[in-house]
Amino acid sequence: MIIKCPWCGPRDSSEFVYQGEGGRTRPDQSSTDQSAWNAYVYDRVNTAGDHDEIWQHSGGCRSHLKIIRNTVTHKVLSVVFACDTQDQEKPA
Amino acid sequence: MVDQLSPLQPVLEAGRHPLADHSVGVTLGETQPGSIVQLAAWRGQEGAAVATIRDVTGLALPDGPGSGAFAETKAAFGFAPGKFLVIDQDEGLAAIFAGAVTSETGSVTDLSHGRTAIRVGGPKAQWVLAKFFAVDFSLSAFPLGSGISTVHHDIFAQIQRTGLEQFDLYVFRSFARAFWTSLRHASEEVGYEVQ
């Protein structure tokens, strides 16, 4: 599987480390809602298809990346810097 | 300043190890720079870091990921977003940058004692390096002066092209002897000379 890092260009997937499902929202640090924490830590959507993921190019520029990957075909549909998407999602 | 001792010193022996037809495909050596410095710019301060590199070393880095430049005794390239490796054969570069880079621009890390610089050159340099790294070493994908970060198993390597057939590799010094041994083994099939 080849992942096209936005900075380094196309690299073998062995240079990257999977860091889990993207798009999860961490409960407020002071929250005592056990079910919310349980859901955050353990619940996964386990998509068969286009999947929102966070990866790190650990064997390269070390950037964290937001990747859409099809879990059935392993086709990588989009790769962007995770820091850029966080900026976009920040409330105005 | 504390004398720098090479981790390759016990194993680096100059000499030719040619093929049966007396040819050598690659030359291997250690460049032993006095200074290896990492510059990290805060977001939005990348241009200021590039300007500081130009002011201090005289090297003008073009725009774009991995761009770099080199001169006879100095070299610099971007190896990650906002991060640059600057190399000088003379010692003391980190102190100069520490005075030139403000806390508003970024940070300076002296890696002079933490990295070992290995030079691989010759007509088979691309061939030998391609056995280690899953990277396109052709001139069109890896232009003169540019640099990359990559990895050979656990050995993180920063590589700059400093000639049409020449690459400078920067590896962690604790891995350098193991990497050097692997490099010699990988070079046997094309014949090599240690300089």
Tell me about this structure.
- The complex is a heterodimer of chains A (92) and B (195).
- By secondary structure, chain A is of the alpha+beta class.
- Chain A has one domain (2-89): Folate-binding fold, CATH 3.30.2270.
- Helix content of chain A is 18%, strand content 36%.
- Chain A has helices at residues 34-42, 82-89; strands spanning 2-5, 9-12, 17-21, 50-56, 64-70, 76-81.
- Chain A is globular, with a radius of gyration of 15 Å.
- The N and C termini of chain A lie far apart (37 Å).
- Residues 88-92 of chain A have low confidence and may be disordered.
- Chain B has 195 residues and is α+β, with helices and mostly antiparallel strands.
- Chain B is 21% helix and 35% strand.
- In chain B, the strands form 2 sheets. Chain B has a 7-stranded mixed beta sheet.
- The radius of gyration of chain B is 17 Å and the shape is globular.
- The two termini of chain B are 26 Å apart.
- The relative contact order of chain B is 0.24.
- The model of chain B has no long low-confidence stretch (mean pLDDT 95).
- The interface between A and B is medium-sized, with 15 and 16 residues.
How would you summarize what this structure contains?
By secondary structure, chain A is α+β, with helices and mostly antiparallel strands.
Q: Given the helix and strand composition of chain B, which structural class is it?
A: alpha+beta
β-strand amount of chain B: 25-35%
Question: What share of residues are in beta strands of chain A?
Answer: 35-45%
- Count of DSSP-assigned helices of chain A: 2
Helix fraction bin of chain A: 10-25%
Task: Identify the biggest protein-protein contact and residues per side.
Answer: A-B, 15 and 16 residues
Question: What level of helicity do the residues of chain B show?
Answer: 10-25%
Give the averaged pLDDT of chain A, no decimals. Answer: 91
What is the third-level CATH name, the topology of chain A?
A: Folate-binding fold
When the domains of chain B are counted, the total is 2
CATH topology of the largest domain in chain B: Gyrase A, domain 2
Main β-sheet, spatial strand arrangement of chain B: 1-12-2-8-11-10-9
Distance between the termini of chain A: 37 Å
Domain unit count of chain A: 1
What would you say the CATH architecture of the largest domain in chain B is?
A: 2-Layer Sandwich
Spatial strand arrangement across the major sheet of chain A: 3-4-5-6
CATH superfamily of the largest domain in chain B: Probable tRNA modification gtpase trme, domain 1
